[in-house]
Amino acid sequence: MTIGSLPPRYRISIDPVRCMECERCIENCSYGVFRRDGDRILVNSRNCTACHRCIACCPRDAISLEEHPCDYRSHPLWTREAREAIYNQARTGKIILAGMGNALDYPVIFDRLVLDACQVTNPSLDPLREPIELRTHIGKKPTRLDLRRREGGDVELQTPLTPNLQVETPIMVGHMSYGAISLNAQVAMARAVTKAGTFMGTGEGGLHSALYPYQDHMIVQVASGRFGVNIDYLERGAAIEIKVGQGAKPGIGGHLPGEKVCADISRTRMIPPGSDAISPAPHHDIYSIEDLAQLVRALKEATEWKKPVFVKIAAVHNAAAIAAGIARSPADAVVIDGFRGGTGAAPRVFRDHVGIPIEAAVASVDKKLREQGIRNEISVIASGGIRGSADVAKAIALGADAVYIGTAALVAMGCRVCGNCYRGLCPWGIATQRPDLVQRLNPDAASEQVANLIHAWTLELAELLGAAGINSIESLRGNRDRLRGYMLDESLMQVLDVRQVGA
Amino acid sequence: MSTVAKRVVIDGKGVHYTPLNQQIRKAVKDGAEEIVISNVLGQRFIGDGLRGNATIHVYGVPGGDLAIFMSGPTIIVHGNAEHAPGNTMDAGKVVIHGNAGDAVAHSMRGGKVFVRGDIGYRGGIHMKQYEAQCPILVVGGSAQTFLGEYMAGGLLIVLGLNGPVRARDIGSGIHGGEIVIRGDVDAACLATGARKVPLADEDRRRIAPVIREFAGDFGLDPEPLVNAEYTRIIPASARPFVGKYTWE
User: Fold this and answer.
1) Domains of chain A, with CATH numbers?
2) Do B246 and A95 touch (CB under 8 A)?
3) Is the pTM value of this prediction over 0.80?
4) Residues of chain A contacting residue B69, judged by C-beta atoms under 8 Å apart
5) Which ipTM score applies to this complex?
6) CA dihedral in degrees (A195, A200, A202, A207; nearest 10)?
């Protein structure tokens, strides 16, 4: 024995007094923690992922879960994660893949920013009686409007307008593909965004026919693998998004393992069942900013210039310059995906170490576009680690037009952020294609929950705006005066373009 | 009612690609079976997302992304083409009586692209097939490096009629489909993930109709091509990256 077994990550215990041996835990655990032995239920804690399905199902609160019941000697540098990655790679010699977003303990900039409110002068607005406008439009805005008065006295707009997406709340659901998540999860979110008057992304997995009824609220994605992309797909979407990069794994492509390519996914992605779906790192028709502009034009030309086209990039060091380049193409919006963005699977080294926080990226993109006088040319959508309405408000005050949520929408459907999405055994029916697990997610109930979440955040946004004496989301956009930095260093405050608390 | 094929002539001189495509779309909608576009000079996206089964003759040099997202029609280019003709094409046919640029048939998932002359780098990159849809790229001349990279399906034939085939790093990351090159290919020209096998009789029977169709389109004698020596390059594995990763 050289390395031997590692200490278990979790310990599950069943209180024998409370347990009534109903076996719900056995039925619900897809990882095989529980089994029956005579008149007892036995546990194998090593199989546990802390998904909490058993705890959620236990009618008697008999199950308890402890994280790291037996830990290593504590050390600030040689953390448990650092040591276990070494054991893993010493055994396998391979790249470590991991699920969900960035798991390193970086400071959260959102939590070092505080919002403003009115007091005596400029009294706050009461959303109960004052209309607070949360509707916004995603897309290019003209630099100037040319208005002519007709003979009858009517005013006519002469300036041609570019198609925009009208969103009733600045909260959209980002791209999670059919394949990464289940069809029931996609259908639930599609119904929710339709109800909320907002939009969601398809991800690079094609558009399943079950989503056609919601296609006016779907943004269809074109990524480097071009899975599921044909002219019908492009015409169905309300908008088209070119995915250049993703916050969870900037600079590399995607890879849906063949095991997940079942008959239905194969049909939607238009690839043979069981084959790996490999999205290369770059788009092989985009090797320059001019090539990107050409693909934007190709997509617009294919759809007769009726659809807005978004470009999504990962938040990286030069995000501001890249966004300025994108703004000079016919693209209508740039999505900036921060380094906390989620994923079904990404190399751990990328997930945890590549990219920059969304707060800094959005602020620098907004600043660069304003400096160059082209902020109106493109909308900015922030994504990657948006946890609540406060993050939405702060992202908008830092310069975003709207946000994409991803993990938050999954959590609204039951996800416990256990980070084992890549195993395809999600007991909540979200990140799985196994029919018995998928059917656990009731699209009616789940859509209600996602719609509730968007509704609740929208209400909170209205309250925050009213308290700040602002009656429109568009007056919050880029409004740094409504933010103050708390315990942030001066250089970062310069990047964010905010002043410190008390100033 | 006239039985003569309905023919529409469009003068492309100085016309931007959007009004040009609008004229093509209108002609197809009005039932044109043959559309002739003259004086084409660098207009991109000709036939972008176009449906139907019209035949479009292009005289001049079209710009990039010819027939991108196209689903059905036939485009015959009487000249050279720029980069990525047949990009993400769904169905239909593109015949180029000249050379073409880089990324020819990029991500193509159905239909045929025939190029009489040479093509640039990354030809047939990430072509893929599904059920009855099997994209076919045939190159009369040579292809450059990264031929068939990330290929996930379909058939790519290079005939090398203008001299030796210069492609290196053939089929890097190939995980589906096949590349057939006339003559022998040095193993050093294959990239990771690709392997060469002899062309079996059944393979020859399968590709013969494609070669005959290509020869017919360009007025070549098909039989010497059908009977020539070929190297067949296929994926070493349908899952090239399966051994690269471990889970957390």
Assistant:
1) 10-73 (3.30.70.20), 137-142+153-500 (3.20.20.70)
2) yes
3) yes
4) 229-231, 234, 298, 302
5) 0.95
6) 30
